[in-house]
Design a protein that fits this description.
With 136 residues, the protein is of the alpha+beta class. The protein has one domain. The chain is 34% helix and 9% strand. Strands 1-2 form a two-stranded antiparallel sheet. Strands 3-4 form a two-stranded antiparallel ribbon. Helix 3 crosses helix 5. The longest helix is centred in the last third of the chain and has 15 residues. The chain is globular.
Length: 136
């Protein structure tokens, strides 16, 4: 993991038009302790486990997601959105036992589309080293 993180550090994540992690995400938490200001999200907040999260639409998309234009609050997007890296997430997920991965996917804890995105982007970086990535 440490080795992968070292590689990713020098490889910016170009999300392009992908917005998979803004969809069907069980909870996009605000982290006031890391600088998120809840006042910037008036009318767009819910609560989970006593912590503020962004509201989602009835289809599970983030309240700020426009499928054509992307994030409609990009400048103020929360810290988790600024720092999330599906490549690193994929690595943390893929090393878990298969049964655990299946259970996580079934419970909605894991978004298969996001994991595929992470896997594809990680493989593109690692190139000849891709055989070191565990197969799904
Ligand atoms: S799934 Fe990955 S590539 Fe797609 S928007 Fe999220 S972080 Fe970016
Ligand atoms: S705030 Fe923006 S970047 Fe974050 S999940 Fe919502 S649409 Fe995506």
């Amino acid at each position: 993991m440490g080795q992968i993180d070292d590689i990713l550090k020098d490889q910016p994540l170009n999300c392009g038009a992908c917005n998979k992690c803004c969809r069907k995400n069980p909870g996009i938490f605000l982290l006031p302790e890391y600088g998120d200001d809840p006042a910037l999200y008036e009318g767009a907040l819910d609560e989970m486990d006593g912590r503020p999260i962004l509201k989602t639409k009835s289809n599970g998309d983030c309240i700020y997601l426009d499928l054509e234009k992307g994030c409609m609050n990009y400048e103020n997007r929360p810290r988790v959105c600024r720092t999330y890296d599906c490549r690193s997430d994929y690595m943390q997920w893929v090393v878990k036992p298969r049964a655990e991965r299946r259970a996580m996917m079934k419970s909605g804890q894991l978004n298969q589309g996001v994991q595929k995105e992470g896997r594809t982007r990680l493989k593109a970086i690692l190139g000849s080293k891709q055989s070191q990535i565990a197969a799904d």
